[in-house]
Design a protein that fits this description.
The protein has 207 residues and is mainly beta. It contains two helices and 16 strands.
Length: 207
Amino acid sequence: MLKKLAACIMVMAIAVAFMPTSAFAGSKTVKMTASNKVVINGDYAYCAGASGIYKVKVKKGKATSIKRLVKNNEVFGAYSYYDAMKKKGKYLYYREGGEGTVGYINRVNVSSGKQKSLAMIGFQGDYVIKGKKIYYYKYDEESDNPPKREMKLNGKNKKKSSKKAVLKTRTSNEPGYTVKIREKGDYVRDYLETPKGTYYLGKAKIW
């Protein structure tokens, strides 16, 4: 009996030794797909433009109401500092960049408009929402290999992580939707394009 048990253990050990490393790598990697321009969720489209992030009620491709959730007070040109948007629960999570190398993971309550900055990251650094945690890379200006971190969805309980965050982005999670930014004179204007038309969102003065 002991010989049979030992033989079984030996077979299992050999099988594990020759198992592809990718079988283990999967547990060390968390992935997410986010939208840079538009997130469609239920009856609403969340739109990232140069002047901020907008919540737009959409019915059959037509915008019926528009509310700005996040206002950008420092507009420098016809491009958006907001991208990698992901809707989870009552919050829209997004990445905010800037003129330098530093970026941030933020979230905004889509009902109240209350905003919160959750963590500092490198410019366009990857982050992933998985379950009740956010995995990301802490900004470190001294290193080309920023440390891996994880935190709760509200930004609390930050700590080291063994998980590698892999972020994939797209324009929108629904085909036919995007945001166009047009610069004219001292202002930029944001427009939501849908399969049914183009809708003005708002504007901001260029600094």
